[in-house]
Structures are given as structure tokens and as C-alpha cells.
Give the backbone structure.
Amino acid sequence: MELLPLVALLLGVQVAIHDLYARRVSNRGLMLATGLALVALAWQWLMAGRGFPGTHLLGFALGLLSLLPFYAIGWMGAGDVKYFAVLGLLLGAAPLLPIWIIASLLAGAHAMCVIVARRIGPVFFHDALSTGSSGPVSRRVQPVIAQWRHARQGRVGIPYAAYLAFASLWWVLQQHVGGAA
């Protein structure tokens, strides 16, 4: 596997874990991946005799510009937008559409689950997870929920970057491990 897909794979694992747990995307990870990508692309172009990395630069621009309006109207976090742009830089422009479609379907399924859980959850769980409950399940679950809430610092919403990461992991594995390359 080449360097850029490997970086995309590693970054995807990190982003998925961090976004699911804390609803954050690490700027440090994004900057490191961007720096590695730019150095690798410059090396390939200038030293290894490969062509100009236009598809990767176009992928960066398309990734940034396609999700930026959703950030501007408050539907998406800045980390989601930055991560999609970095994916474009790492993988090029071509995989962005399938990654976006898969991530959007996963996020839509997540949203539907949240809506259904809010409607039928009280019927099944009553107040088993409320702070006043003293059942054995509640005593085990409450610290986990408290830890998640603390890590998220009030951030709510769908972990779209995690779904972008799942879709990009699938794409990289299909292209570079599954023999479809």
C-alpha cells in the first residue's frame, strides 16, 4: 500500500474513535496528515517523476468547498469539513463522491435511530437511566454516560466525521487491499 492511502487509513481510525467518543476531530491529526501528504506529493512530483498532483489538490478544494456551506449554516462542524478536505488531498478527487454518499447514508440512519429512540425510548426504559434510578444496569451505565458527557463538553449531534472515516476506510481497503486497484 502506498503512503497516502495508508495515512488516510490511520487518520480514519483516529478520527472515527475521537469523533464517536468526544464529538471532536483533532486538528493535530489533520495537520500532520496534511503535512505528510504535501511532502509526499511534492516528492513524487519533483523527485520521482510522477505527474503534477492536480487530482489531489482538486480533491482538497472539492472536499473543502462541498461541505463548507453546511458549516456556514450550522449543520456541520468545522472538523467534518476539514477532514473531508484532507481526505481529498490524501485520496484525490475521485473517491470523494462515493465516500460522501456512504457517509451521508450512515448519518441519515443514525438520525433515524435517534428520532425513533426519542419516541419509543421512554416506553422501554422508563427512568432506568435517570440519576434517581438504583437498578443494577443503571448503576453500571451511569458512569459511562457521565464520562461521555464530560468528554463531549456539551457537543451534541451526529458524528459525521466518523461516518466519513468509515466510508473512507471501506474505500481504501477496497482499492488497496481487496484487489480492486
Summary: DSSP finds seven helices and no strands in the chain. The chain has a mean pLDDT of 88.
